[in-house]
């Protein structure tokens, strides 16, 4: 008798499992660990969607390009603006259907396919206990003595590194080559990715590190450490954004749409700052979590659209490589 | 030279070799299916190729040169803690690169221990960034490997030779000429070629310690072509360049190794009557101390940083550690299934050029192999559900050249000493493996298995391309921690990784030795 009951309840459970629709979301590798935003997003969305949200992680764009039409994704979250052109060209994506005017980005966003969910800016981070006179402008950074050492990421292997060469391009244009020549003696080294650079900075090996304007927030709110600061430059800072997009051939278009609506919701937006150490894309500054509104942010924001970036990118990287190879 | 009759045949080895070649070729077929005509190689790639070859050649040369005195000193001395030291000296080789880089910079970096001492002494500080830094890091990684391979060679000199040399009262210089130098000539070219290939595929280490784009390697260009430009044909082309360079170096090295006929001994414990002098004791002690300091200080800094982070590690790190153990075990199993028959086949041939097959996996770039297989698997099955077995197999392929370098001399020696006896007793084929080769080569098998397990634990492998979020490996979890500002917890995970790799290595290596002795 007991066995029959158990079998019956197992059967029921598995049927219930079969009926719960699954939404497959491809995300960047960092996304789903317990210190990433994934788990909170999963809990938050499953409360309202009557579905099972499943993340699948990996190297987003290469994976989509390799899978092509066979992709199992319904939604892709975490594509950065430097790869959206390439992602768009696959023809895999459908319009997001959300109202772009609800966005609170510092730039004008008109893309109907890739919907921003958080943003930040490139910035050089320093430790105020060891650096008494941080540069007050990009020009001042170039004039710093050569024994001030900064560590940056390679634009050929890292998104933040690419943002840096575009930043220099946006501020200095034709003079970029000279800027890199001036910076070269101050560049301690170049790392493959952001983590290695940041590790060198926190270990005290470098005085400044190329990172994001939101990096000090992590130290402030997670570690109670108020010594890490972003050097803000009046010339402006390069804008970096992460987006979410819907796969056109999804079998669950309603669920995918519901997820995009959820991304724009106050619930999602207000957890982004501490969950992803980044700024929410559709939440007025006054509604940011406590303390975040006081985070120093640049007044001027620089950004190349994906077509402009695509046109400039190869040459900007080559300028960088030439100047630093001398 | 006429092929001598051997108790084992090469058939299974040829099958295993074919499997390896097929695994690599299939990956290229997969990439070929998806590659569109790309941009071809430009001047930037030309510079990368030149730099890669130069740093790899320098690194290999310096690693093997320094390994000679270190291995000689270790071979001549019996001292308390020697086995522990030999095991620990192997640790740099199995460290994840990012951990090793941070460890090296804690010692040799701008704010490192060396510069702090120089500062106290009012001496000008040293900068590690540049070609010399790349070479220093690569020597740090590979000196242990070269030392172990040489040490293994030294231990293969029968005790009777040293006894005879002592009876003839040969001075150390003569012992060097008659016993040690012929051995070095036999071991060194292969070790140098192997290190050359490892350094050829270096990427993050070369970039960071090289100080920037001057230190661009072919592997970085492959990563860039694949990850940023998604130019599969260019990535494949660069991968072939790497393959050709590695294959060329290997063939050259294996070709210059003289085919010295080996003779066996009576397995007496070695006594070194020649190394009793005070000067020799002093120089050996100095060499061992210097070598140990160079290799162990960065490990000490990794350990110190890790101890702070251990309590901060989230539970998922332990889960990942378990997954990694599983991957390592699978890697070892795959490796032994491929390497043993392959090594047997190479051992019965007069020349060892077939060993170049073993280098295919390592030099074709794991990124390429992983991608190629992803393309092939994707239409048939979900690559994500196969990510762990694929990672294990690719890790085994990466470890294959090391395993062959270790196994072939052991098997060759077993066959040289007892092959004819086996033949006359009719002990051939599987029986020869069972009664002669496996027992005789057990220490080498343990060493190879331990090295593979440890490498597999520490290597990120191809899993980053298509990971299942619930089944992350320990290195992947460590990189995730680093990417989320959790530097301390990541250092803890790195220490755990180091400990696990050492324990696996120790268990296989010492276990097999212990079993072989009893």
Summarize this structure as a short list of keywords or feature phrases:
heterodimer, A: alpha/beta, D-Maltodextrin-Binding Protein, domain 2, 2 domains, twelve-stranded mixed β-sheet, B: 518 residues, mainly alpha, MetI-like fold, 75% helix, globular
CATH superfamily of the largest domain in chain A: Periplasmic binding protein-like II
CATH fold-level topology of the largest domain in chain B: MetI-like fold
The geometry of chain A reads as globular
The oligomeric status of these chains comes to heterodimer
Biggest sheet of chain A: strands, sense, closure?
12 strands, mixed
Q: Can you tell me the CATH class of the largest domain in chain B?
A: Mainly Alpha
Radius of gyration of chain B, rounded? 23 Å
Largest sheet of chain B: none
Low-confidence stretches of chain A: 1-17
Number of strands of chain B: 0
Mind telling me the CATH class of the largest domain in chain A?
A: Alpha Beta
User: N- to C-terminal separation of chain B?
Assistant: 38 Å
Q: Based on the structure given, which CATH architecture of the largest domain in chain B is correct?
A: Orthogonal Bundle
Q: How many separate domains of chain B?
A: 2
Q: Which H/E pattern describes the elements of chain A?
A: HEHEHEHEEHEHHEHEHEEHHEEH
Mean pLDDT of chain B: 84
Largest interface: A-B, 56 and 59 residues
User: Which whole number gives the mean pLDDT of chain A?
Assistant: 90
SSE blueprint:
The complex is a heterodimer of chains A (326) and B (518).
Chain A: H1 2-19, E1 22-27, H2 38-49, E2 52-57, H3 60-67, E3 75-80, H4 84-89, E4 93-94, E5 115-127, H5 138-143, E6 150-153, H6 159-172, H7 176-183, E7 187-191, H8 194-202, E8 208-212, H9 215-223, E9 228-231, E10 237-247, H10 253-263, H11 266-276, E11 279-280, E12 301-302, H12 306-324
Helix pairs in contact in A: 2-11, 6-12, 7-12
Chain B: H1 11-34, H2 43-76, H3 82-89, H4 91-94, H5 97-108, H6 113-120, H7 131-155, H8 159-167, H9 172-200, H10 204-210, H11 218-228, H12 232-256, H13 278-309, H14 315-348, H15 359-363, H16 366-377, H17 387-425, H18 430-440, H19 442-458, H20 474-483, H21 487-517
């Amino acid at each position: 008798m007991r066995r029959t009951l158990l079998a019956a309840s197992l059967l029921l459970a598995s049927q219930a499992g079969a009926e719960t629709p699954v939404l497959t979301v491809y995300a960047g590798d960092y996304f789903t660990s317990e210190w990433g935003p994934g788990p909170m997003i999963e809990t938050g969305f499953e409360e309202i969607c009557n579905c099972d949200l499943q993340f699948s992680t990996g190297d987003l764009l290469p994976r989509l390009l390799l899978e092509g039409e066979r992709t199992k994704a319904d939604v892709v979250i975490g594509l950065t603006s430097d790869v959206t052109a390439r992602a768009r060209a696959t023809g895999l994506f459908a319009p997001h259907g959300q109202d772009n005017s609800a966005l609170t980005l510092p730039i004008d966003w008109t893309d109907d396919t890739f919907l921003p969910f958080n943003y930040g800016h490139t910035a050089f981070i320093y430790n105020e206990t060891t650096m008494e006179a941080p540069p007050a402008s990009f020009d001042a950074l170039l004039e710093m003595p050569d024994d001030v050492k900064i560590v940056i990421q390679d634009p050929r292997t890292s998104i933040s590194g690419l943002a840096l060469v575009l930043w220099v391009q946006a501020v200095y244009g034709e003079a970029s080559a000279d800027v890199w020549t001036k910076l070269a003696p101050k560049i301690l080294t170049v790392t493959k990715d952001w983590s290695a650079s940041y590790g060198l900075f926190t270990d005290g090996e470098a005085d400044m590190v190329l990172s994001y304007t939101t990096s000090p927030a992590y130290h402030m709110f997670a570690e109670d450490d108020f010594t890490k600061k972003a050097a803000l430059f009046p010339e402006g800072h390069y804008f970096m954004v992460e987006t979410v997009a819907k796969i056109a051939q999804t079998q669950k278009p309603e669920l995918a749409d519901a997820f995009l609506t959820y991304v724009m919701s106050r619930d999602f937006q207000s957890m982004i700052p501490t969950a992803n150490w980044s700024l929410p894309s559709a939440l007025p500054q006054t509604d940011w979590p406590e303390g975040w509104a006081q985070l120093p942010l640049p007044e001027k924001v620089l950004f190349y659209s994906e077509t402009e970036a695509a046109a400039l990118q190869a040459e900007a990287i080559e300028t960088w490589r030439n100047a630093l190879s001398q | 030279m006429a092929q001598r009759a051997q108790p084992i045949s090469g058939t299974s080895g040829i099958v295993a070799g074919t499997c390896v070649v097929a695994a690599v070729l299939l990956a290229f077929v997969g990439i070929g299916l998806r590659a569109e005509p790309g941009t071809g190689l430009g001047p930037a790639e030309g510079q990368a190729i030149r730099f890669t070859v130069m740093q790899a050649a320098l690194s290999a040369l310096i690693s093997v040169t320094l390994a000679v005195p270190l291995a000689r000193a270790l071979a001549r001395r019996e001292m308390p803690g020697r086995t522990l030291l030999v095991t620990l000296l192997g640790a740099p080789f199995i460290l994840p690169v990012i951990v090793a880089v941070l460890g090296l910079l804690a010692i040799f970096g701008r704010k490192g221990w060396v510069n702090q001492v120089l500062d106290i002494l009012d001496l000008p500080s040293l900068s590690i960034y540049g070609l010399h830094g790349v070479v220093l890091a690569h020597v740090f990684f590979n000196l242990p490997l070269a030392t172990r391979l040489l040490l293994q060679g030294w231990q293969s000199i029968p005790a009777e030779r040293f006894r005879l040399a002592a009876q003839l009262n040969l001075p150390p210089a003569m012992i060097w000429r008659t016993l040690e130098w012929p051995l070095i000539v036999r071991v060194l070219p292969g070790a140098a070629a192997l290190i050359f290939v490892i350094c050829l595929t270096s990427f993050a280490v070369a970039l960071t310690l090289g100080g920037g784009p001057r230190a661009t390697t072919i592997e970085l260009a492959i990563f860039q072509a694949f990850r940023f430009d998604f130019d599969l044909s260019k990535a494949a082309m660069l991968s072939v360049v790497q393959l050709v360079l590695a294959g060329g170096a290997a063939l050259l090295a294996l070709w210059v190794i003289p085919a010295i006929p080996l003779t066996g001994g009576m397995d007496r414990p070695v006594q070194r009557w020649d190394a009793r002098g005070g000067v020799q004791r002093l120089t050996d002690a100095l060499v061992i101390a210097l070598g140990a300091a160079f290799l162990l200080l960065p490990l000490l800094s990794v350990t110190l940083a890790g101890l702070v982070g251990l309590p901060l590690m989230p539970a998922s790190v332990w889960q990942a550690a378990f997954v990694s153990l599983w991957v390592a075990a699978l890697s070892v199993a795959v490796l032994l299934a491929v390497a043993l028959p392959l090594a047997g086949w190479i051992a019965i041939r007069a020349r060892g050029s077939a060993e170049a097959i073993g280098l295919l996996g390592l030099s074709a770039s794991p990124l390429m192999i992983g991608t190629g297989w992803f393309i092939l698997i994707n239409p048939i099955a979900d690559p994500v559900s196969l990510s762990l077995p694929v990672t294990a197999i690719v890790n085994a392929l990466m470890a294959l050249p090391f395993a062959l370098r270790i196994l072939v001399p052991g098997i060759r020696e077993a066959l040289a000493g007892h092959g004819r006896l086996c033949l006359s007793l009719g002990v051939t084929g599987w029986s020869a493996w069972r009664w002669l080769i496996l027992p005789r080569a057990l220490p080498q098998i343990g060493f190879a298995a331990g090295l593979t397990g440890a490498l597999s634990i520490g290597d990120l492998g191809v899993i980053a391309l298509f990971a299942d979020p619930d089944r992350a490996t320990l290195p992947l979890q460590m990189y995730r921690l680093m990417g989320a500002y959790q530097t301390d917890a990541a250092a803890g995970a790195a220490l755990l990784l180091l400990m696990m790799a050492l324990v696996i290595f120790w268990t296989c290596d010492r276990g097999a030795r212990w079993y072989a002795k009893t």
